[in-house]
Amino acid sequence: MPKDISPTNKFFKNSDLTLEKAKEIVQAGLQGADYGEFYQEITETESLVKDKGEYTNISVGNSKSGFGFRVGQEERVGYSFSDLFNEKALKGAISQAREVLKPGVVPVQPPAFGQVPQQLYPSQNPMQSMSLEEKIAKLNEIEAYVKSLSPDISNVTLGYSAASKSVHIITADGQSLVDNRPMASLNVQVTVTDKNGNSETGYALLGGRVDCKDVFNEAAYQEAAQKALKQAQELLIAEEAPAGVMDVVLSPGWAAVILHEAV
After folding, report:
1. Contact, 168 vs 7, CB < 8 A?
2. pLDDT reported for residue 172
């Protein structure tokens, strides 16, 4: 979490609250508690999917937001949330969460929030560096490149998605902490069909806390396409795995976890 900074206007754009008023209400709501905080989140997303030469999904301009208030004392924790953010909703959430507190208990000073010494990822919205038209053109370009790799390719499926998550936290001592978290990814699926009609599909995924331009980078998507194609080609010529009843030897440790998940 970055150092104490004022949140951008987006957190209070459609609210009757200001930052100072929200701090005042939150700090009052955490009086007498051992720990707690106000947590607010705004998430914007978009996605594009192209399959069999057609766009099967174009979803842009999606946004959702909400906040939560947590308060704790000893082993009791109260939590309330709302997708509406205004003074009435905040005070109501605090009132509900505080019902778990016990009177007469001396609060313990909460530990300080940790901070990282450097920025771990870009803070800008990962969707804004390219227009929708540019992204569609790029997906068309990628599809054409993948199809050019082999005449045995029978289908190419491309899935692009991106999200921008903005987080605002107000602590018991009045700190206002903001973090903007980008996420972008490109999924490349390549289906190969042999002369006998057998088909296999290879997959490759690239992305992370990066800008959309990074997943549309030519060198990056070409490497992903080649990886997916190679995987599909190897699956097509691979021998079938042996089947039937056979002895299995398990060592202690993770084998128990795997067995637990299986049965």
Report:
1. yes
2. 92
The pLDDT tens digits of the residues spanning 164-175 come to 999 999 999 999
- Please report, as a single letter, which amino acid is at residue 232: A
pLDDT > 70 in the chain, percent = 89
What is the DSSP annotation of 160-184? EEEEEEEEEEEETT--EEEEEEEEE
pLDDT digits over 137-192, tens only?
999 999 999 999 999 999 999 999 999 999 999 999 999 999 999 999 999 999 99
Which strands, in side-by-side order, build the sheet including 176-193?
76-82, 54-73, 35-51, 153-171, 176-193, 199-208
What number is the average pLDDT over the span 110-119?
58
Angle at 251 between CA 250 and CA 256, to 5 degrees: 75
Among 22, 28, 37, 27, which residue's Cα sits nearest to residue 69? 37
Cross-strand partners of 11: none
Four-point Cα dihedral 190, 191, 192, 193, nearest 10: -170
- The CA distance from 35 to 76, in Å, is 11
d(CA 7, CA 133): 31
Q: Which residues pair with 153 in a beta bridge?
A: 192
